[in-house]
Amino acid sequence: MTSPEIKFSSDKTTLTCSLSGSWTTQELARVIPQTANKSETACKEQIFDLKTVEIMDTAGALYFLQYQDKAEANGHKTLLKNVPKHVRQILDTVQEHRIKECPPENAPKGMKKLLTDTGESFYTIMAQGYELISFLGLVLNAFGKQLVNPKRIRWTPLVAQMEQIGIHALPIVGLISFLIGVVLAFQGAGQLERFGAQIFTINLVAVGVLREMGILLTAIIVAGRSGSAFTAQLGTMKVNEEIDAMRTIGLDPIDVLVLPRIFGLILVLPLLTFYADIMGLLGGAAMTMITLDLSLFQYIRYLQDAASLGDFFVGMIKAPIFAFIIALIGCHEGLQVSRSAESVGRQTTRSVVEAIFFVIVLDALLSILFSVMGI
């Protein structure tokens, strides 16, 4: 096996490149210095003579084809001659399967690039939306089958998911909600003091926590904690081909993996929201007792006048809706994972971002709707 070599000979219009030796992965390092800047020659035509090439593997073929592309991108006409049969076969195979890079000068620029990028982004968003709606249809179809035949419901995974989503999330949800109540009371008391209306701090805390902050913060925490876990778990199972194995033995992944997570989150999030409301009100009570010099019983009495059951139910109505959205997106992104560890991380990040985005958008829409309805 001889070392690869390129001999160049030129006249006024043509540059002839005679290739010889072994064009393999181990020998490419010797070829690269020989071809440096040769594609930028002033000749209008380049002829590649491959008669004396002994052997060429896929790496050598790919490097040669890329060198040929670079010559053509510089405006040169290229021609191959005396190509041995075994070299022609490897060149044709690599040419068929490789991804050919577009010349930089053909890339859109300026306003054309802006419009192209906008169109591609819009198409991607629409495609993702279509996939999510299709997945929703599969979930509803599986749910209908379980309603018709309750024996299909898998109670053990459902209870296990409720434990993971609910009980294990109590410390972080409680701490965040308590601190939010403290912050609302402290900031509200400072602002209302200017108008001599510090007592209305209790109204601010009660309405803010019960209608908005309790459910919104709980949903965001659950989206970052449980939604990402759904994506990572299902994504890892797909990478390990466990989901394919389930389909092979006749199990529906929607029944076995998706529905227990969706129902578990729908059942648990209202309870977490109630817990977050209590902790938020306790945080507000702690700060109010300090800033307004009230007792706990006085705080509770003022709280009864400040908030109603309607405020409480407004927050609770949002909980199952947010839970369904978070679980649906988390499971959908998990099943979209390709067979690589990098894809698991990418889809997990996307699931958290999409879930939080939809939660905030839905919260804003529901708040406007309740306001229009006078609730």
Structure description:
The chain is an alpha/beta fold and 375 residues long. The protein is 71% helix and 9% strand. It is built from twelve helices and four strands. A four-stranded mixed β-sheet has the order 1-2-3-4. Helix 2 links the parallel strand 3 (45-56) and strand 4 (77-81).
Features:
Transcription Regulator spoIIAA, 2 domains, 4-stranded mixed beta sheet, 12 helices, 375 residues, alpha/beta, 4 strands, single chain
Question: Summarize this, please?
Answer:
This protein has 375 residues and is of the alpha/beta class. 71% of the residues lie in helices and 9% in strands.
Distance between the termini: 85 Å
- Identify the overall geometry: elongated
Number of DSSP strand runs: 4
| Strand order across the largest sheet | 1-2-3-4
Any idea how many domains?
A: 2
Strand content: 5-15%
Mean pLDDT: 86
Over all CA atoms, what is the radius of gyration? 32 Å
Coarse structural class: alpha/beta
* Biggest β-sheet description: 4 strands, mixed
Question: In sequence order, what are the helices and strands, one letter per element?
Answer: EEHEHEHHHHHHHHHH
Number of helices: 12
pLDDT < 50 stretches: none
Helix content estimate: over 70%
